[in-house]
Amino acid sequence: MTSHIAQLPQWNITTRKLLHTVLAAAALCLPACSAWAQTTATVTVNATSVSAGVPPEGYGLNTYVWDSNMLSSGVASEVQASGVNSLRYPGGSDSDLFTFISGTDQTMSSGYWYSSDTFSNFMSDLALPEGGKPIITVNYGSNAAYNGPAPTSEAAAWVQYANVTNSYGIVYWEIGNETYGNGYYSGWDWETDLHDTDQTAADRVGNSALSPTAYGTNAAAFVKAMKAVDPNIKCGISINTSSYSANWDQDVFQAISSALSGTGYAPDFVIDHWYPGGTTAQILAAQAGIPAEVAHIRSDLNSYYTLGNKSAIQILVTETGPASEGGVFPFLFTADDYLTWFENGASNVDFEDLHQGYMAAPGDTGNTSGSYLTPYGPWYGVSLSSTVARPGDNMVAATSSNSLLRVHAVNRTDGKVGVVLINQDPTNATSVSVSVSNATLSSYGTQYNFGNANFSSGSYTANSGISESSISGVGDSFTVTVPAYSATAVVIPNSCTTTTITPYLQVNGGTWQNASTATVASGSTVDLGPQPTSGGSWNWAGPYGYTSTSRQINGIPFKSGANTYTATYTNSSGCISTKTFTITVS
């Protein structure tokens, strides 16, 4: 197992990705910058201007059922070491071919899969030992006989087996993969969808059975069938903001709103896939477009989705990648990608995928090369990001005067402030002047570095890991030099005084107890009301994606077993303190 911070061609690579992105030609690491080549940047951070929290299942990774090394020895621990905390299964377009018949009977209606990669084995050999929360994509496109679409009963049976029979408590369930690629739009025909069994383009383009309205209406039936089994799950629908799939989002939102109106059911999240295209420079620069992508999605929801949970709809980015095989460039992309999506409110981001670029190169799952445990650039991108910006921390406002110097900042639950600086300039180091407002920071901290110097010329893999060192002379303002095509992160403790959180809880409307733990019977109601009651702000994070900004939270949701809620209090000086509450249901 590799330590979290090191001391000093499968069939699914198809037209889909070619449409999402143009392969970059200059993907390998570039020569180190000359000592004299240097630019400057001014970075400002507002430690109390929160943009969004780092989600509890944010750092995700795709898996695929064709991968013969998905469940191999050492994979779970190596994935865990990078900071991944969610795992998508059964993987991309395979999902619309993967048939769940029962807990012991699963198959592919078409295409290849590795027969050991069953759902039960995925849970026992990867998800549970790794600790990542599964994100399941149920089959929308094909039945077991491959002569029609998947029935809703198949998805409901999967929920039953996972959450009722085995009590896995899987929350996120996607309805189909990229259904907009089913051939309804001319040239977009990579995704299996047997709501029309004729595979000719002439029959599929514009066919109403493949339309966004049909998908929205059919997805509503999946929502009802799955939530009838477990009302605590969250169901997601595929969206696409591209101009090539005109009106997809609008028609899907209108159709599912109409189909579920008055039923008490609703979808809970939308599924976006993010593959920027162009040259390496254009792909890196495309991350600056994520706020506009989120604004587009929210605008469509506001305009066309009419169910009552509009404001609570989450965004999950269940596929993303830089279209590059190795070297430092995918590291730069990945570190920036996750943090930018988190800043803009995404609940999950999943790199595409485990043995095509994360560990082992794309097109080489490690089956023949033996490299299935070898970290690639994106592994280090997630590792650096998750070390600085941890689940439960708050992403805060940060700006850079230099467009090639990307910046992310986080106000952490341990009272520290983290700043991640990503230099996208392939030839010039950048001297960065950092100023942090609304915080009183210590003069010492910890610095992390990774980038171009970690790769030998032409190498796909790093020859050394992320470096970690103690630094001094920082505080609220400091200067740091970030080498060309590299990232530097600085984490600085807060030198001000935090406020002690006094825990209080109430069971079944009884007396408030000065306690942070309780064991209750099923069906009980629990309220949490910590103190102080004024003078600062509160943020809560709990199971099943629960969040709140109220001090007192009433009737919290929970299931059998231990349920952990974390209260974060920021006092008027910007100092952060946390308290964990554990409610155990007997």
TrEMBL record:
InterPro entries, alphabetized: GH, Glyco_hydro_b
Highest taxon, organism lineage: Bacteria
GO biological process: polysaccharide catabolic process
Signal peptide: 1-37
Keywords: Signal
Name assigned to this protein: Alpha-L-arabinofuranosidase
Protein species of origin: Granulicella arctica
